[in-house]
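Team,

Forwarding the record for the chain on the shared tracking sheet. I've put the sequence and predicted structure together so nobody has to dig through attachments.
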Amino acid sequence: MPQYQIVGQDIQYVKVYLNSGEKIFGDAGHLLMKTASVNMQTKMRGGLFGALKRELTGGTFFVTELNGPGEAVFAGIFPGKIVQIPLNGQGIIAESHTFLFAEDGVNYDSQMARLSVGILGGEGLFLARFHGNGNLFIHSYGGLYIKDLAPGEIIQVEASHLMAFQEGMQYSVSRVGGLRSLLFAHEGLFFVTLQGPGRVWIHSLTAEQLASALIPFLPSGQQGGFQLPI
């Protein structure tokens, strides 16, 4: 079985140690480095249909397979926490952008979400679904809050902060507040209601929040990114 080490506090990365014949797959955009002994291949895992479904979730069409022996390092694109989730037959529904990598026994699929959850939560009509057996690694944006719900216990999570939840939980979307909240409080109007039993992962930061916070510090007229001198 591959060995893992999560390093750091608020800006984390994870080391993966693969023995000969061991395999993982992940998002190449999160791969920092690998030793030369690790064989890397880009594949359309799950066939054309599986790749198309991943594209619908906002994930990558192709995934990168890494075969041992050797070491590889993965990290998220924002400050935050890396979460190791042993699936053991349990499915996880998650934002596709949180995916780092998974063991070979994990299936990366998608699931039709309730229409309002998909649109209002910013994930289109589909959410990423991970199921099977093996370890899954996802990363939060900012701080991470984990909530275990007892049977019948209900919480409401602002839609853009919902990172992942266990498959089989009942969920729906509802509007909280009114027009005044939207115009003056700048709060999201839509909350995802989840009912236990099950575990929910919530991240404290969204990509939109980070981008908004950085805009005042960008040079006038510059939208970010590297600008070549003229």
